Amino acid sequence: MVVAYKHEPFTDYTVEENKQALLKAIKEVEADMGKDYPLIIGGERITTEDKIVSVNPAKKDEIVGYVSKANQDLAEKAMQVADQTFETWRKSDPKVRADILFRAAAIVRRRKLEFTARLIKEGGKPWKEADADVAEGIDFLEYYGRQMLKLKDGVPVNSRPIEYNQYNYIPLGVGVVISPWNFLFAIMAGTTVAAMVTGNTVLLKPASSTPVIAYKLMEVLEEAGMPAGVVNYIPGPGSEVGDYLVDHPRTRFVSFTGSRAVGTRIFERAAKIQDGQKWLKRTIIEMGGKDTIVVDNEADLELAAQSIVQSAFGFSGQKCSACSRAVIHEDVYDHVKDRVVELTKELTVGNPSDANNLFMGPVIDQAAYDKITGYIDIGKNEGELLVGGEGDDSIGWFVNPTVFGDVDPEARIMQEEIFGPVVALTKAKNFDEAIDIANNTEYGLTGAVITNNRAHQEQARQDFHVGNLYFNRGCTAAIVGYQPFGGFNMSGTDSKAGGPDYLVQHMQGKTTSEMF
Ligand code: NAP
b vs e for 279-311, b when ≥16 Cβ sit within 10 Å of the residue's Cβ? Predict the structure, then answer.
């Protein structure tokens, strides 16, 4: 019997021994950088001339790896392999599939420092964030393995005399998994193994900025006993490989995490029936957020300021759950604003490989840098720039933590996802208005309310329309199996990653009824 699930503990890098161990791992990963990585289709390594060049966003001339790039022909080859492999994999014992996940978790846990160092290099993640990303990936492996064991015999249904009814879950078919770069290990791994442990075969297309870590997951899954062809690794441009596979008539489902623009495009394209297609494709689509922290007038104001700063600037605001707007009761607005500014001024920004415990590293690439600094320019006309506002893209892509005050709730920086270290503050006359403002975007991913007023807390529970609502804490850092994660409205299909309903979305219920 497997032991009860518990989330992976985080590492304290203020402990000298832990710090030295990670510094050593960073050196070892540096020595391993700049290698070639092939595609993996049906277990076969395929090298292409054309490469994706993965770079360290903190030091753009440092090459993490050269990764072979799939095109439509290779995507078609991968589809055929996955389609054939499905015929055996769908009949595999769910316990064996779960064991592959448990063994993979053990392998990653043993190589945790190496994986953490890889995320620091390829994702530009500060130490704490890289450690949390690896821990979350381990959690997905452990949690989904256990969930599959719960689901493997289906769920009980009623039977009448001389009748035996059963209700079981069977896999869907070939799933296309398209992952983002921000949780380059956790989300990529979680969405892949959820699709695979449920008996589907997978075409994994990781984000083009972070393909090397996905190759490392492939190595782990192979070592853990995954048969060839179950997960196929096909990095390549979303616009070419992504569209081709989403449109493919043999694609049975798409599991996507990324931006609203790409998510809605996939949703539309997947709905179109192609020649030879025999099913309605299922889509699991998790998109962006415009996440709000509401501060009441009866609240711990230090907690409010700390929560805003941590949630806005952790991993440079590049989390779908990041706080990008704070709605503050007018009675306490000035106090909270001043404290947010003070705390923000204390933050350090720099290359996370060079020193430990830097709070913020770079943003992921030039496009992100340009987009974020573009929004900072917009913000200068929409509110008062209180702190930050500068960037430096000479060596890596760095943007200083930026706070705007007195921003109109309808302003662009209050409505559009910036996905960078920028937070806008606004004033509300009372708690009702604060909740109205919090709800006035098209998203509905996370939110937090800082209040000591129980009635207001209950009001928010009913009226603050977000998939993950937190009280008296920040709005980031959901834990697998503890705070299932996913949003409403244009934040996605609310599939709740790391929750008890997640795996079922990768399967279909089959009823059998036998008369004796
Ligand atoms: P993105 O630009 O939408 O890319 C996500 C993935 O989609 C990448 O693998 C990308 O490939 C691929 N893609 C691009 N165009 C495609 C197309 N036409 N067809 C199929 N796939 C295509 O998002 P991102 O910048 O990587 O990630 C940031 C976004 O993800 C933010 O909006 C954030 O809020 C959201 N996010 C949401 C959640 C959640 O749980 N709700 C979690 C994390 C992130 P290429 O890299 O090759 O372009």
Answer: eebbbbbbbbbbbbbbbbbebebeebbbbbbbb
CA dist 502 and 300 (Å) reads 35
Going from the Cα of 192 to the center of ligand 1, the distance in angstroms, rounded, reads: 15
End-to-end C-alpha distance for the chain, whole angstroms: 34
Helices (H), 272-349: 301-313, 333-345
3-class DSSP state of 214: helix
Residue 221 Cβ inside 6 Å of ligand 1? The answer reads no
- Sequence-distant (≥ 6) Cβ neighbours of residue 441 within 8 angstroms: 290, 414, 415
pTM value surpassing 0.70: yes
Tell me which residue has its CA closest to atom 18 in ligand 1: 239
- Residue tagged 């000591």 (tokens): 452
Q: Is the CB of 239 under 6 A from ligand 1?
A: yes
The span from the CA of 174 to the CA of 152, in Å, is: 19
What confidence score (pLDDT) does residue 324 get?
98
User: Domains in the chain and their CATH numbers?
Assistant: 16-287+495-515 (3.40.605.10), 291-479 (3.40.309.10)
**Could you please report the per-residue DSSP string of 444-504?**
ESEEEEE-S-HHHHHHHHHH---SEEEESS-S----TTTS-B--EETTB----BTSTTTGG
Give distance in angstroms: CA of 34 to centre of ligand 1. 25
CA 180 to centroid of ligand 1, rounded, Å: 5
In the numeric block, which tokens belong to residue 264?
Answer: 């809605």
Positions annotated as catalytic residues are 286, 320
411 vs 33: CA distance, rounded Å: 43
For the segment 142-194, what is each residue's pLDDT rounded down to a tens digit? 999 999 999 999 999 999 999 999 999 999 999 999 999 999 999 999 999 99
Closest atom of ligand 1 to 236 CA is: 47
Q: φ and ψ at 214, to 5 degrees? A: -70, -35
